[in-house]
């Protein structure tokens, strides 16, 4: 199952990156925005539960999807479209590396298994 979930992450990363390229996205901004969701690591300073909640909020496809749908509803997709694609690419890349959604026990316990084992 783990390999299938990682393959799914690879498809998400490649698909989002391809669509970003098709949109004519700026690669400088892709690089800048790519690791932005990882600022959620800082929430672990408040403890494992807070860390997991914030990390998961920024590392599930639900968040960029909601952002994009709100942008469509408001007619503001010009900049939001590329941002959500970079965000989705980041989430897919993390899945390939084995960084899954976190359990409250700590950073290393994920839905893809324990990191580092």
How many domains, in number, for the residues?
1
Q: Which quaternary structure do these chains form?
A: single chain
Which secondary-structure class do the elements indicate? Answer: mainly alpha
- What string, H for helix and E for strand, traces the elements in order? HHHHHEE
Strand order of the largest sheet: 1-2
Low-confidence stretches: none
Largest sheet: 2 strands, antiparallel
Characterize the overall form: globular
Task: Indicate the percent of residues in helices.
Answer: 55-70%
What's the mean pLDDT score?
91
Number of helical regions: 5
Care to count the β-strands?
Answer: 2
Beta-strand share of residues = under 5%
Instruction: Supply Rg.
Output: 15 Å
Q: Would you give an account of this structure?
A:
With 117 residues, this protein is mainly alpha-helical. Helix content is 63%, strand content 3%. It contains 5 helices and 2 strands; from the N terminus they run αααααββ. It has a two-stranded antiparallel sheet. A hairpin with a 2-residue loop joins strand 1 and strand 2. Helix 1 runs antiparallel to helix 5 and helix 4 packs antiparallel against helix 5. The longest helix is centred in the first third of the chain and has 21 residues, at 2-22. The chain is globular and about 40 Å long. The protein starts with a helix and ends with a strand.
